[in-house]
Specification:
alpha/beta, Arc Repressor Mutant, subunit A, globular
Length: 217
């Protein structure tokens, strides 16, 4: 397993220093850069191509939501984990729709940040149970028709893989649940994304929520 390269985007230098110390005490995590604004963060992503961006939302010189949207639009393999003081109710839906692969509040950073980075670096989605409930409520109330969403184009096994992916299970864990190999899970996931014309795995979460595949927890 190679090191995870990480870019920290937060306007508070002392907070960045604390997060850097926490992450660099972890084996195979390497902070390759820091930025104090969303605009600077986008520029650093272009030059550094990190595996994961840990992104604050409220910053001068370009906010984190806009920066998340712009980074996702670049089409790189960089994953974005939003780490913010804002509660999920305030920004979760726009953050996920902007292309982030995870959402974590700063009060949980000391115990959950390392695991969250590992999850999004694998190309999966990190959402605490409360966040999943909020997204589920949002999409249930949206009134969108699942029949127009592409669900009917997926086989029953593809729907199972999609639902488990959206719930945050790794390829290995999905394989164990469905009695197939992790490589087969990855093949199913690639096929799902091709059928649904999705680019990022975070898009799979939004789709699964919209069509009711993701269970409320």
């Amino acid at each position: 397993m190679s090191d995870i390269s990480i870019l920290l985007v937060d306007d508070h230098a002392m907070f960045r220093a604390g997060i850097r110390a926490l992450l660099e005490s972890e084996v195979r995590m390497n902070v390759v850069g820091e930025a104090a604004s969303g605009e600077e963060g986008v520029d650093q992503v272009r030059s550094l191509r990190p595996d994961v961006v840990v992104m604050d939302l409220s910053m001068p010189g370009g906010n984190g939501l806009d920066a998340t949207r712009r980074i996702a639009a670049l089409g790189y393999d960089t994953r974005i984990l939003v780490l913010t003081v804002h509660a999920e109710e305030e920004y979760l839906v726009p953050v996920v729709e902007a292309g982030a692969s995870g959402y974590l509040t700063k009060v949980s950073a000391d115990r959950d940040l390392i695991e969250a980075i590992k999850v999004v670096a694998r190309g999966e989605v990190y959402l605490p149970p409360k966040a999943t409930r909020l997204l589920l409520q949002k999409y249930r109330s949206s009134g969108e028709d699942p029949e127009t969403s592409g669900l009917r184009d997926l086989s029953s096994r593809e729907q199972e893989v999609l639902a488990l992916t959206a719930e945050g299970y790794s390829s290995r864990e999905i394989g164990e649940k469905l009695f197939i190999s992790p490589k087969t899970v990855d093949t199913y996931r690639s096929r799902i994304m091709e059928k649904l014309k999705l680019t990022h795995r975070s898009d799979l979460v939004r789709f699964a929520l919209k069509v009711g595949l993701l269970k409320q927890v």
